[in-house]
Write a structure and sequence with these properties.
Layout: H1 2-13, H2 19-27, H3 31-40, H4 49-77, H5 83-137, E1 143-145, H6 157-166, H7 170-187, H8 192-198, H9 203-216, H10 240-243, E2 252-254
Parallel strand pairs: 1-2
Helix pairs in contact: 3-4, 8-9
């Protein structure tokens, strides 16, 4: 009971029930002063309220004097001899610290942006390398051996070479040939666009077949207004998959029918 009574009187004597008021007063103090007061609170039980308040104030004054002495020593090391120069030094020092913090923050942001850029470039380069490796890993198109195909005996030498390069078997070629020649005999002239529409095969192959027929003289292109036949260039650039073929280097794939 005596200990409980002592604690109760201690709380009322030091106004510890005013918790919010005391907490607000502590928050207004600098951090170093709050830390110092928290360390000396253990001596409050050994002293009266007046003695503890005087002791706390003495500790705070000592702390302030030590901080002031440390500041003056720093000024003297930097060649400052007057209070006005010291005040200017403190202003410039705070500005330097502020700029340094801003620079560090900007450096962190810049580093993060650079890391993102490097990561995106790495991903893009990896995707490009993967696509290039996939493209290089594809086997080039090879010339098809049609010597054993059905209807090969109906083709001439140039027609066999054309079908081999176009990877077109004799029967579809003969069907396209029959349709184109019949239409030319009926109309008297035939455009390349009309040939592509009549032949039910790839349009690129149809154009090369049409140019081959014009080259051999089986079909004549329509005559222009000036009386000259429309120019047909079978010697122009071949399609990509045909230009990549070389009968001297590419393997021949045999087909069984």
């Amino acid at each position: 009971l005596d200990r409980r009574l002592y604690r109760k009187s201690f709380i009322f004597d030091r106004d510890l029930l005013e918790y919010r008021k005391n907490q607000a007063a502590e928050k207004r103090r600098p951090k170093d002063e709050r830390d110092l007061l928290n360390k000396v609170k253990v001596f409050a039980r050994m002293q009266t309220r007046e003695d503890f308040d005087q002791f706390s104030m003495g500790m705070l004054n000592e702390h302030a004097l030590r901080q002031r002495i440390k500041q003056l020593q720093e000024w003297r090391r930097n060649g400052i001899t007057t209070l006005e120069d010291g005040a200017q030094y403190e202003v410039e020092r705070s500005q330097r610290l502020s700029r340094r913090a801003t620079t560090q923050r900007d450096s962190v942001h810049l580093l993060e942006r650079l890391q993102k850029i490097v990561a995106s470039r790495t991903i893009r380069d990896s995707a490009s390398e993967a696509a290039a490796q996939k493209q290089n890993s594809r086997k080039p198109a090879s010339i098809v051996d049609i010597e054993s195909a059905d209807g090969i005996e109906l083709l001439s030498g140039p027609e066999k070479d054309l079908c081999s390069r176009l990877r077109l078997f004799p029967r579809p070629y003969l069907a396209a040939k029959e349709v184109l020649l019949a239409e030319y005999a009926r109309v008297g002239c035939l455009k390349r666009r009309q040939a592509c529409e009549l032949v039910k095969i790839d349009s690129t192959k149809a154009r090369w077949i049409y140019d081959f027929f014009v080259e051999t003289g089986w079909i004549k292109p329509p005559v222009r207004e000036d009386g000259d036949a429309a120019a047909v260039s079978i010697d122009g650039p071949m399609p990509v998959y045909l230009a990549a073929l070389d009968t001297r280097e590419q393997p021949v794939v045999k087909s069984e029918f």
